[in-house]
């Protein structure tokens, strides 16, 4: 089997490549990136005969398709704004595909993937991805589901890479139509910083207020749990406190609208200027606490008894006590490892459905995925409570 790791020189994607080298049975692992210098550094660092480098420019559709042909799967680690182009290439090349974002740009290629009898799984990392599997693990134990609240803390610098900067500004775009909740059978659009709720994440992260964010879980869980009668789905998230303060200020001053301004005769977007500054600055590339934390609350009924399942996840700390998880790697590995596991499972025919597939449909036995995570030091925890009073939504 062969895997084409698109954008493989990126900070998250290279960790996924490392996981494939350590745990998968791929015979060829190609790091494909426009940045040849960084791509070759990744190959050299891994020092494995199965790993090679290919320079690729996804804006050259024909060349990219030709380079992808013959691979079993493309692990797409590129940015949100490239996903339509990259998915078009993957579909035409006749490969399986998977990416980290899942904002819907891939849906147009559903029939092509089905025709080729291939699977495309958009949006699979820590969140979206593992979050859906954790929610389904709880829902599978219930006769009916009343509410699902997905929450996460993403503890990383605001701009350690350009794709992360892009994600930050995208998620808090004031006009973004995808910032929704599912409520009583309908998707309801909400503004940035809507529905604040205090969430207690596992240590060392602790309690903090989180707000609704535009993630794929809202739509995918609504589809997957329709037969369980789900009435409410909310997805929240947070970044380090200083990041949240900055984004709130940018929102309140209208800077996130990215309106054009003129500086020394040149027209630029105001948010583009700030994003570039953050990417180049010390303040944008460092933070005090690194890592990831998930918190999934599912309320429903089992045999007439109201139940609440709370699932969380933990991982090795970023303090250097566990080799390979130091600093920023405690964040990037959390995203990359589920990405790599899913890539390997698809290539090994452990996903039966073809076309554009949501995580809930891809991995119908979440426990097998949790076992793979445990091998890497990522643990899923579950607490189940019986509710004496009707569950408040």
Explained architecture:
This protein is an alpha/beta fold and 393 residues long. The protein folds into two domains: 2-121, Rossmann fold, CATH 3.40.50.720; 130-331 and 369-386, Dihydrodipicolinate Reductase, domain 2, CATH 3.30.360.10. The protein has helices at residues 13-23, 36-46, 61-68, 83-93, 110-115, 130-139, 162-171, 217-224, 241-252, 270-280, 282-285, 329-347, 359-362, 366-375; strands at 2-6, 28-33, 51-55, 73-76, 96-99, 119-121, 144-155, 180-183, 186-189, 197-201, 206-212, 232-238, 260-263, 266-269, 291-302, 305-314, 355-356, 379-386. Strands 7, 8, 9, 10, 11, 12, 15, 16 and 18 form a nine-stranded mixed beta sheet that branches. It has a seven-stranded parallel beta sheet with strand order 3-2-1-4-5-6-17, sandwiched between helices. It starts with a strand and ends in a 7-residue tail after the last strand. The mean pLDDT is 94.
CA radius of gyration is: 21 Å
**How many helix segments?**
14
Compute the number of structural domains.
2
Uncertain stretches:
none
Percent of sequence in beta strands: 25-35%
> Distance between termini?
47 Å
* Helical/strand content category: alpha/beta
Helix content estimate: 25-40%
What is the CATH class designation of the largest domain? Alpha Beta
The CATH homologous superfamily of the largest domain: Dihydrodipicolinate Reductase, domain 2
CATH architecture of the largest domain: 2-Layer Sandwich
Give the strand tally.
18
Q: What spatial form do the alpha-carbon principal axes imply?
A: globular
Mean pLDDT: 94
CATH-derived topology of the largest domain: Dihydrodipicolinate Reductase, domain 2
Described by strand count, sense and barrel closure, the largest sheet is:
9 strands, mixed
């Amino acid at each position: 089997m062969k895997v084409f790791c698109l954008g493989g020189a990126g900070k998250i994607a290279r960790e996924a490549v490392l996981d494939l080298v350590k745990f998968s049975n791929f015979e060829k692992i190609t790091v494909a990136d426009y940045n040849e210098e960084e791509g070759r550094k990744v190959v050299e660092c891994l020092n494995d005969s199965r790993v090679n480098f290919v320079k690729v420019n996804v804006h050259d559709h024909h060349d990219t398709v030709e380079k992808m042909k013959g691979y079993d799967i493309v692990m797409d680690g590129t940015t949100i704004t490239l996903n339509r182009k990259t998915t078009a290439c993957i579909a035409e090349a006749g490969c399986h595909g998977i990416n980290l974002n899942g904002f819907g740009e891939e849906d147009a290629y559903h029939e092509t993937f089905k025709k080729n009898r291939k699977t495309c799984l958009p949006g699979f990392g820590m969140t979206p991805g593992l979050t859906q599997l954790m929610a389904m693990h709880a829902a599978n134990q219930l006769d009916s589901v009343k509410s699902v609240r997905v929450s996460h803390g993403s503890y990383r610098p605001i701009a350690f890479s350009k794709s992360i900067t892009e994600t930050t500004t995208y998620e808090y775009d004031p006009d973004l139509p995808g910032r929704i909740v599912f409520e009583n059978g309908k998707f309801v659009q909400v503004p940035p910083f809507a529905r604040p709720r205090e969430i207690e994440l596992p240590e060392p992260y602790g309690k903090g207020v989180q707000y609704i964010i535009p993630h794929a879980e809202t739509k995918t869980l609504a589809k997957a749990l329709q037969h369980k009668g789900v009435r409410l789905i909310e997805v929240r998230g947070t970044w380090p406190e200083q990041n949240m303060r900055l984004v709130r200020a940018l929102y309140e001053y209208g800077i996130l609208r990215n309106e054009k301004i003129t500086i020394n005769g040149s027209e630029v977007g105001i948010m583009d200027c700030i994003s570039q500054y953050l990417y180049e600055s010390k303040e944008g590339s460092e933070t005090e606490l690194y890592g990831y934390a998930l918190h999934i609350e599912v309320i429903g009924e089992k045999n007439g008894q109201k139940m609440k399942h709370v699932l969380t996840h933990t991982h090795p700390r970023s303090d250097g006590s566990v080799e390979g998880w130091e600093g920023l790697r405690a964040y990037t590995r959390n995203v990359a490892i589920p990405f790599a596991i899913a890539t390997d499972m698809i290539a090994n025919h452990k996903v039966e459905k073809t076309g554009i597939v949501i995580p809930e449909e891809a991995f119908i036995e979440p426990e097998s995925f949790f076992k793979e995570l445990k091998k890497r030091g990522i643990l899923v925890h579950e607490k189940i409570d019986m509710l004496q009073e009707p569950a408040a939504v």
